[in-house]
Write a structure and sequence with these properties.
four-stranded antiparallel sheet, alpha+beta, 396 residues, three-stranded antiparallel sheet, 13 strands, homodimer
């Protein structure tokens, strides 16, 4: 099945951190069901451990073992499990009279694709479309539950994605519509996603805001909603979205910085975006079939070399040109006005930056999911190989 | 202004026919305001006549002369004129107690772009976006009028476009979203457009139908709505859309034939589309800057040569692959089942075809708008050059 021909370059050593000290209950959560990684796997062999699924801080099984995904048919009830867990959590908090925060992160639509029997073959878009339909149904059931419990008017729901469509997955990934390239890149197809905010009685339904934002803004938004003050002893990147959500105000000064690894690749403010670096992926990776921009070719904008444009950034007016096809001429009046203005935004941003120790440079097979917390209780511990850290190739 | 750098290859000799025998009042219409051509023009000189604007069967002026479009600012009140004419027609028919058919065809969004003062600079999308906003406002005013006159429940409104986005116009044309290439081609970007049907009380609002259709279906739909019978003495290409519109039924057998000039380039039935010929535009045209597929490159699918694929058509599953990027392998089971089935649809279609005399092969400067009917009354006749028909280059 196409859906399982996953040849992406993600390595299992990365992601959120599955070691005990990084698990959600050590970071403010009271409950946890799910996994700290997506579910690509070795599937049948033990050369790498399958990804564990946790309840709270203990694993309760592994993908492809206790949590089945059928490679041949694409059938799995994982999304249904995530839906049920979400609904149960809401019911329990409601019964106890608690306010609650549910961070609902099903992993469907990530490769390898799956959907439950009721959704298999139901979309025109193949297994990817089936998985999207099932997620959509899950969101609908969660909203229905909030309505049924009569707490909808007191619940703020924000729906979003962590990145643009996985274009390298071809028909098994999403669509970037009019945008350039996809996930892994800092072109619009990789970074720009719509989001949906829902709060009956507070957020006007059916309206569109052009406010730029990022996931980091949700922290600040939530702190403000809770009536607390934003910490003043450090730079907080997020800015509250409440003016946009509640009053349809747009902050035109709000800038978005596009990072890839440790490098700031681009900046956007208002309709203007300047690329300081351009890069799709290495030609060596591309020629082996990993294409972040299938069917697209904008010469001089898409580059297989990591190309430094700092001396004369590639500037786009995303209003006129959402597809980043027609750079603004660097001899134009607009360029001469906009670039210095964006540069001062970047300077200000970099001034406040305290570089941390990069967390993604080193890989170590020993830190994979051999023996996660709880494995001994269910007899799912695997022998841990010797620790041999090595510098990872940063392919994306 | 960018909007006026119109270098498309459309020739003024073509289009609907501005000679007296082709004017709307000789083809069933009772009134006419507008033009039989779009408005590219020579603008200031008389090497070619500017396009006339008619009322009924007589010209009342010309674009860029009596009907102003400011090249520098992009300002023109043409769309407002079209809106006012539409509203006036509705009012008059309503007052007289007549049923009516309004075919409302403003020419804004075609190059060279324009918008009226109230809309100039109002969109994020430049002059093209301004023009779209003004059209949108016009549609809104027409629907409001139908509501105000309390005839909305008795009025069938169908909104559509004659072709996909003019991608060759770069930022001054529309977007094809996820589709391949644009106007002039038989890839999805050239031929596939959504349409909107509105009929309060009869057509359920807010639903989506995947029924394939074409403008030809509106004839048959209108005949059926009027309670008349479809003529049986000839093949009628259109099929009534009423089952889709009123009962949410989809006819999966309905096929669409993609023509370019006199050649059937492709066929679609259900989710499958087979290209019998592929062609973007001649390389000679492309290298001079006319690009129907800017930023796109799907090798083997986009061809600058007119490429005959009849022996082994290029097959796409448009459900899985709306962007026509991943041809279905011609050794696959699907290919072997679908291609013969599509071929029989094509055979059946061609069996019923009675080739006419091609109307687009010959050009003649003498038939341009030198002296349209009515010109003498307003002293706008120009001397007609000698008739010298020549074979036109069919650039698109």
């Amino acid at each position: 099945m196409d859906g399982n021909n996953y040849q992406g370059s993600e390595t299992l050593e990365k992601h959120l951190g599955h070691q005990e000290q990084y698990l959600p209950l050590n970071h403010g959560f009271d409950e946890f069901f799910g996994s700290t990684n997506c579910h690509p796997g070795p599937f049948n062999d033990k050369s790498k451990p399958n990804i564990p699924v946790f309840r709270d801080s203990e694993m309760i099984g592994r993908y492809y073992e206790e949590f089945e995904i059928n490679h041949e048919t694409g059938e799995s009830n994982m999304t249904q499990l995530f839906i049920e867990e979400g609904l149960k959590f809401i019911d329990e908090q409601h019964t106890a009279g608690n306010p609650f925060f549910l961070y609902w992160t099903p992993d469907a639509t990530h490769l390898p694709l799956y959907a439950s029997n009721a959704f298999l073959g139901q979309s025109q878009r193949g297994l990817y479309g089936d998985a999207v339909m099932e997620l959509d149904s899950g969101v609908g059931r969660i909203l229905d539950r909030l309505r049924d419990l009569e707490i909808a008017n007191n619940t703020f729901v924000f729906f979003l994605s962590d990145n643009g469509a996985a274009t390298y997955a071809k028909s098994n990934g999403g669509s970037v519509g009019p945008f350039l390239c996809g996930k892994e890149t800092t072109y619009e197809g990789g970074m720009r996603e719509p989001s949906i905010a829902w709060w009956p009685g507070k957020i006007k339904p059916g309206i569109v805001s052009h406010q730029l934002g990022s996931i980091m803004d949700l922290f600040t938004t939530a702190v403000e909603l809770a009536g607390l003050n934003i910490p003043q002893d450090r730079v907080i990147d997020g800015k509250s979205l409440l003016p946009a959500l509640l009053k349809q105000q747009v902050d035109p000064e709000k800038a978005i910085f596009y990072y890839r690894g440790n490098e700031m690749m681009a900046v956007r403010q208002g309709l203007y975006k300047a690329h300081y670096w351009t890069w799709t992926n290495f030609y060596s990776e591309f020629k082996h079939g990993t294409d972040f921009c299938p069917g697209q070719n904008v010469s001089g904008v898409m580059t297989h070399q990591q190309t430094n444009r700092t001396d004369s950034p590639l500037l786009f007016n995303l209003g006129l040109d959402p597809g980043e096809k027609y750079p603004v001429s660097n001899s134009s009046r607009i360029f001469k006005v906009v670039i210095p203005s964006l540069q001062s935004v970047v300077d200000n941003h970099k001034k406040g930056l305290k570089p941390g120790v990069p967390q993604l440079n080193y890989c170590d097979t020993a830190v994979m999911n051999w023996a996660p917390p709880g494995c001994e209780k269910i007899n799912k511990c695997l022998p841990i190989p010797e620790s041999k850290p090595y510098k990872c190739g940063w392919g994306h």
